[in-house]
Input
Amino acid sequence: MNIVEEKRALRERIWRLLEEEGIARFPLPIHGRIPNFEGSERAAYLAGSLRVWRSAGVVFANPDSPQRMVRELALREGKTLIMATPRLRQGFLEVKPIHGMERIQSTIRGAFKYGRRIDEPVKPDLVVTGCVAVDRYGWRLGKGGGYGDREINAILQKFGRTPILTTVHELQIVPVVPHEEYDTKVDYIVTPARIIKCGDTP
Output
C-alpha cells in the first residue's frame, strides 16, 4: 500500500469510527468532510485557555463546521478572524467582530456577508485548522483535497513560524499519520477533555 492509499484508508477508518460510535454531528454524512463531532464546543472553549490563544489578536481559521465555535469565540473576544473561503475559490475573508453578531459572523454565510474579501491573508498570531486524523507528533490528515495544507503553507511561507492548533475528538488521534514532504504539522491538539502539546517526530 502506498502513502496515498494509506491516507485514504485512514480517512475512511476515522469517518466510519466516528459514525459507528455516535460521535459524528451535522453536517452528515461526514465522509468527504472535516468531521464535526460531539464536544466540538467544549474543545473550542478549552482551546481558549491556551496562552497562544489569549495573546492572539488575529486568528486564521478554517471554514469547517467543527471549528465554528472557535471562530465565534475569537470574534467574541475581539479578535480579527481570517477565514479561507471554501476550497479557496474566493481567496480569504477578513472578519472584524460586530457586537451581538458573532455567532452569525462565524458561519461561512455570515463571514461572506459581514466580512471583506482579501486576496492574501494578513499576518495571523495563531492558525486554527481542522483535520480528519492527527498524531501526537502533530502530523495532520485533511479530507484529501489538499486545501488545508495549501492554506497553512501559504501563511508559513509568507509570515514564518506561526503556532497552529487543531480541535478534534479523542477518536481522531492515532499513533501515526502517514505524511509527505508538503504535509503540515500542528503544535497543539485540543479535544473536549484535554490539550496535547505535540512533540517532535522520533
In short: The CA atoms of residues 1 and 117 lie 42 Å apart. The first strand starts at residue 24 and ends at 25. The mean pLDDT is 93. The chain has one domain: 3-197.
